[in-house]
Amino acid sequence: MRDAEAFRLRWLGRKQGRLKLISEAWLKSGPTDARKPLGIRFNQLKQQIEEVLTSVSLRIQKVLEGEERVDITLPGGVRAPGIPHPLLKTMNEIVAVFHHLGYSTALGPQVESDFYNFEALNFPPNHPARDTQDTLVLADQQAKPSRDRLLMRTHTSPVQIRSMIACAPPIRIVVPGKVHRNDAADATHSPVFHQVEGLCVDTNITFSDLKGTLDHAMKALFGSSVKTRFFPSFFPFTEPSADVQISCIFCSGAGCRKCKQSGWIELLGCGMVDPTVFASVTEARRKLNPADDAYNPAKITGFAFGMGVERIAMVQHGISDIGHFYSGDMRFLEQFA
Ligand code: DAH
Questions:
Q1: Closest Cα to atom 5, ligand 1: which residue?
Q2: CA–CA–CA angle 84, 88, 93 (5° rounding)
Q3: What is the DSSP string of 139-203?
Q4: Is the CB–ligand 1 distance for residue 133 below 6 Å?
Q5: CATH class of segment(s) 86-336
Q6: How confident is the model over 155-174, as a mean pLDDT?
Q7: Is the Cβ–Cβ distance between 263 and 255 less than 8 Å?
Q8: Which of 19, 67, 229, 302 could make a disulfide contact with 273, Cβ separation 3.0–4.6 Å?
Q9: Residue ranges per domain, the chain?
Q10: Whose CA is nearest to atom 12 of ligand 1?
């Protein structure tokens, strides 16, 4: 009852009540033509407060007179505080592993130009390697020169180019983000998915640095007993390129259904940054500073890597259908609380 009275005084008190203050600050000193609409709003507010007060005092009265009872044994309302989505959780975990190694986060747009997504990464126009990326392009772009045409980025690699054009080496970045491909959805594919890209450029960066960094990252994500191996592969923007496999975490390498009896699970792509990529970056930087030589491959080298967040999360949690991540099914999501 006392609280109700304090509430009444706080709002309706004649001297210090908020309504009184509002009326002085806004109504009385307001411009003449605004007074009418303000007055109407003011009266509505006053009425609302009075209604709440009356109904609260009535209920309190009833409880006090024993007409209405509060059952204090009833369970309280349960508030679900919410948790990060499992994909976001895995993405943050990956990013944190690299933050601890001194990397910072860089981000880029999902609607990207052909130049950043392909050309500067050494996918020339009409190159067959573009076919592996099943690109979703924006409509009505034909009138533009090919490098300016817009598309949905097919990977997070274009942020490598944006970052190198913006900053001289040394560079150490991780790039989490959403990517898009014209893929039919099935148990392991989704037209929208997530990647984390990495880039390290400095003097004397070698393939051993790449191996050591990724071996550490895989152990941090999957446990210290995990082994890694590097297989020759191809990406237009790295030379040499490799696919990284980890020893199967389900059978410790003995061979099972999850690893197709091979004992190994393929997880990501990587390689040493191709000098052609440094050349594209230098060309773009020289438009701003004709003498720029920061990415001269005779002075610096670098490595890069890219991994699918869904793929990593599926291996971490033994999930066999990518569709679970997007279903919004609480029975699935609550398991990660
Ligand atoms: N961009 C590649 C893809 O989406 C993944 C990748 C591979 C990124 C090798 C890299 C890399 O930076 O060095 O398939």
A1: 306
A2: 105
A3: SS-TTS-GGG-EEE-SSSTHHHHHHHHH-PSPEEEEEEEEEE------SS--SEEEEEEEEEEET
A4: no
A5: alpha beta
A6: 98
A7: yes
A8: 302
A9: 2-64, 86-336
A10: 305
